[in-house]
Every structure is written in C-alpha cells, then in structure tokens.
Design goal:
The chain is of the alpha/beta class. Helices cover about 25% and strands about 25% of the residues. A hairpin with a 2-residue loop joins strand 10 and strand 11.
Length: about 270
C-alpha cells in the first residue's frame, strides 16, 4: 500500500506574539530572526497516522512538501520518524498561491508519483488555520475526502475513519483511493530515533519543478489564485478600566450593578 503525506514548513507557533511583524509591501508575516521554522504540527499527526498503518500493513510512505527556503533539517523530520521518501516542490511558479493553486500543484505532484492508495494530511496549517488545501487536492484528483480524523484504519479496500465531532465522534468509511485529514486528537506524533535521524541524514530529497509535474502555469501560484488577500494586519486591541468605589464592598457592588444595568449588560 502506498500512502502519501503532505507537510508544510511553518513559523514556530511558540514564537512570542510580540515578535510578529507584518511586511506591508508583501502582505506577509516577516521572518522572525533567531527562531527556526518547524513542521506544521497537524502534518506531524498525519505522518504519525501513516506510520501506524505501516505497523499493521506493508506500507510505503511518500512525503511531499511545497515551499520556498525550506530548511532541510526541518523538512526531513518525517524521514527521521520513519517515512520512506521525500519530494520537494520548489519553483518560483508556485509562489504567492492560494489554497486552490497550491492544491492544484500538489495534485499534479501526486499524479506524477503515480499509483497510491491513500493521502493523509493535517487538518490545517498553524500559520493560516484555513484547512482548505487538502480539500482542493481531493477536488483536483476526484477523491472522496474525510476530514478531522482521530483514528485511521484500512480494511477490505476501504479507509475507515473515526472522525471528530463537537458532540463526540462518528465512524466514516470511503473506498480507496481517498484523502483523509487528521486532527491532533489522533495523539502525539512519535519522536525521531537516533537511527532514524542518521538514516534521514543520508537520504536526499527529490526536487521537482512546475515543469517536472506537468502543471499548467496559468493554474499555479499567483496566476492560479481564486482568492485575493486585501490586507494582512495585526489588530489593535484597546481596553478601558473604570474602578468602582464605594463606602464599603456592598455599596461598591450596588454601584457596579447600576453601571452594568445602564450599559444594558445585565
């Protein structure tokens, strides 16, 4: 069985909020000096789901990542966890894309990979929190998609998923090939072993350009955007505090209640 996982390099979500700066010229978050990027946490959950399948089945795991200025030691983490192959999509044609044009590029890469049984992705990326790319891939490939998985199994040519709901969970299945997005309820991803890190260090990723995957330039990057970003900004939050005083606590409480009633809060 061949499983494909998508991963994304993101800014470390543990970065202090005060360090974030917006580059108004590019409408993007400026890189924070001295803070190394990481693999998106939900994508690590996806790799973990694939590795659990590998424990019970004969599974080959191919990881695909699209991006610019990828840090090799970071992006190789799935290999050190136990994935088999890593493909990097690197081309200026991919830049400034939205979820749909990125999804198209990833779908074309999947087609170039060839035969596969299951695609597993993180539910969303920590830098945008939109959760749209995976579904764009499924649409481009014509695959059934199941989102928000906390457990993924393969039985009798079907993927069986326990899916997270706000009121509990539900069991959903789909015929293979299919696409599944994984949530953090799946559990903590495993730590890379020393042996895995050493093996990953000896592996060189395969690098593909837009031409390599046979993609239509009109559907890539900025050319393929269907959503435009008008403005990216850090909202300004202001607060006011009024101290209510009284002759004693009871008097202060009555005055506070009067203020709240006047403001129609109670």
């Amino acid at each position: 069985m061949h499983v494909i996982c998508f991963i994304k390099q993101v800014m470390d979500p543990e970065t202090p909020t005060a360090s974030f700066k917006i580059d108004s010229a590019t409408n993007a978050v400026a890189p924070v000096q001295g803070v190394a990027p990481v693999v998106n946490g939900f994508d690590e959950n996806a790799v973990e789901a694939a590795l659990r399948l590998k424990e019970d089945h004969d599974v080959t795991i191919t990881v695909i990542s699209l991006g610019k200025n990828l840090v090799l030691d970071v992006i190789k983490k799935p290999l050190s966890m136990g994935a088999d192959e890593l493909i990097l999509l690197q081309d200026d044609a991919f830049e400034d894309g939205d979820a749909y044009s990125i999804g198209y590029a990833l779908a074309m890469a999947v087609k170039k990979v060839g035969d596969f049984d299951l695609i597993i992705c993180g539910r969303q990326a920590s830098d945008t929190d939109r959760g749209q790319v995976a579904l764009a891939v499924a649409e481009n490939l014509g695959l059934p998609a199941i989102t928000m998985a906390k457990r993924v199994e393969v039985k009798d040519g079907k993927v069986v998923v326990e899916r997270v709901r706000t009121d509990g969970s539900e069991i959903v299945e789909a015929p293979l090939p299919a696409l599944v997005t994984v949530s953090n309820e799946l559990g903590e991803p495993r730590y890379p072993t020393l042996r895995g890190i050493m093996q990953a260090g000896r592996k060189s990723p395969t690098v593909w350009t837009a031409a390599d995957i046979g993609a239509d330039p009109a559907k890539l990057g900025a050319n393929g955007r269907v959503v435009s970003l008008s403005k990216l900004f850090i909202p300004e939050v202001e607060g006011e505090c009024e101290l209510i005083e009284g002759e004693n606590d009871a008097d202060a409480g009555r005055k506070l209640a009067l203020k709240l009633r006047e403001a129609k809060l109670i």
